[in-house]
Amino acid sequence: MTTVEVPHGSRSVVLRVAAVIAETTDTNSVVFEVPADLRERMQYAPGQFLTLRIPSERTGSVARCYSLASSPFTDDLPKVTVKRTEGGYGSNWLCDNIRAGDELEVLPPSGVFTPKSLDEDLLLFGAGSGITPVISILKSALSQGAGKVVLVYANRDAESVIFAAELRDLVGKYPQRLTVIHWLEPLQGLPTADMLAGLVAPYTSYEAFMCGPKPFMDLVHDALASLDVPRARTHAEVFNSLAGDPFADHAPVQISDEEAAAAATVEVELDGQVHELSWPRKQTLVDIMLDKGLDVPYSCQEGECGSCACTVLEGKVEMDNAEILDPEDIENGYILGCQARPVTDHLKIQF
């Protein structure tokens, strides 16, 4: 049995596994119990994810992000869904080892892949296990919103369709609001941007969300661009393996007198409040905000998860790693707080 005696950092919590559900031959869902004293910290928005600390004999542990497939409005307990990936240590360890009653250390829910309004008409794309955050959004919108929802769900075959029965039930419950379009490789072949554009042409006014392998999401981006869907109305979720340890507590920032004298100033809007901070040139935005005790959203601090995405309203930054942001994102002022360092003397940034 897997047990965790104490959390490895002040941000993480230890949760007991309530159930493990076999979704397909290579995909399991892990359902967590949430004690009363942790319910506030474990509140989540549709489309967010959990970061799990997975034991490793070689490195002590690895950190992996898994989307919540549950809805905070329709499911009693939070649930992440894990699909085995070839050579993927985290996914294979979880599928092979985790059972009901085990304990796992997790970071509180994070991520910005979530609609601003559940009343919007939504156009959702998922491929393979990319359905995980998408179905969270879908269930939440149907339960709490008033708009229509269209899901395009691509899989290699019918046996690979995760949540097939649940989707059938939802179509039966919301026939006027939910449309599910399955794309199965043996029947339709591999999708192209033109094919996808033809499928979703009637829904170009909808807010679009996508999750899946990069080639699939590239096709979706191209399809929506060909239909003149504004880039600001398309949202993508991307996960990469994390190399560092997001469970470790943040180390205090060490700043020399020389660095302090040359620091930029930044006005940061967070949760409706504006904070004016000194921003040394060698420090990231997340580092200085944590150092000031601000509850900045972040998870990996490696530029791989997008939790710390924010918008530059004034000024300019440079980033070490911004690969998960599209050129259009950067053009529109989006940055990653954990990678951003100031270039100009004064900046305004909004979370």
Question: Could you explain the architecture of this structure?
Answer:
This protein has 3 domains: 13-109, Translation factors (Elongation Factor Tu (Ef-tu), domain 3, Beta Barrel); 122-237, Nucleotide-binding domain of ferredoxin-NADP reductase (FNR) module (Rossmann fold, 3-Layer(aba) Sandwich), CATH 3.40.50.80; 257-350, Ubiquitin-like (UB roll), CATH 3.10.20.30. Helices cover 21% and strands 31% of the residues. It has 9 helices and 18 strands. It has a 6-stranded antiparallel beta sheet with strand order 4-3-6-1-2-5, with helices on one face. The chain has a 5-stranded parallel beta sheet with strand order 9-8-7-10-11, sandwiched between helices. Helix 5 (193-200) crosses helix 6. The chain is globular. The two termini are 40 Å apart. It holds the Pfam family FAD_binding_6.
